[in-house]
Amino acid sequence: MSHEAGPADIQPPADPAAAPGVRAQLLATEHWSLLASRSTTQGEVLTRISMFLTFTSASLLSVALVGNATQFSDAFRAFALTILSIDVLVGLLTHVRVMSVGMEDLMYVIAMNRLRAAYVDLDPGIAPYLMAGFTDDEEGAKRTYYFFGGRRDFSQVAGSSMVFMGTVNAALIGLLVGSALLVAGLAAPFAVGAGVVAGLAFLVTSLFRGKRRYDDVWRKLTSVSPAGGSPAGGGPKTP
């Protein structure tokens, strides 16, 4: 027995105007998810840095107190080297996390720029009102980090948490190396010089590794919506 289609079986035609609205909602949901993840990551690394600085300050204070109590005996030297070694270890672990968060933050910026490119695809008229970048290339990321443009890369790097942690760790490493050489019997000028060289070597190496990781991102990234080009959807990229 055949079944004849009734009014209830007839599906209403899809509304073409609803598709952009649905896409906008999906993109906005992803955008908020990225914003939340970025905020959480930034908060976590700032807490890590604060904990490290508090730990280092307390440990160096304990070294000073023990030094006064032991009259800077051989036991104090062993204690001081142990504390400095622990400080350096904690600092290096914190530094690794800071560098990772720097790359994660860039990842979130690129992802949100790509979403803004999709917004511009849906409505090209909003492009002039977007202060943040809406291209997923290096220029778009720089625009998101600093809306007004024209700022030199040096100020962005010099004021970063990576350079801050690298400087603190370089000082701790230099102090540890110099102290260890003094305990070993090396003359003070040579021990101090070796400590300075060790600290500078670490700082330069840290900056080089950070620059290499940053360059690797742009070398390996396949841009979906580059500046001056067409996004994946084929819509206009610039107003």
Topology:
Blueprint: H1 18-70, H2 74-122, H3 138-145, H4 153-158, H5 161-183, H6 188-220
Helix pairs in contact: 1-2, 2-3, 2-5, 5-6
Describe this entry's structure for a reader.
The chain has one domain. The protein contains six helices and no strands. The longest helix is centred in the N-terminal third of the chain and has 53 residues, at 18-70. The chain is mainly α.
- Give the DSSP E fraction (strand runs of 2 or more residues): under 5%
Largest sheet, described in full? none
Could you estimate the helical fraction of the residues in percent? over 70%
| Rough outline | elongated
Order of helices and strands: HHHHHH
Short structural summary:
With 239 residues, the protein is an all-alpha fold. It has helices at residues 18-70, 74-122, 138-145, 153-158, 161-183, 188-220. Helix 1 packs antiparallel against helix 2 (74-122).
What characteristics describe this protein?
239 residues, 6 helices
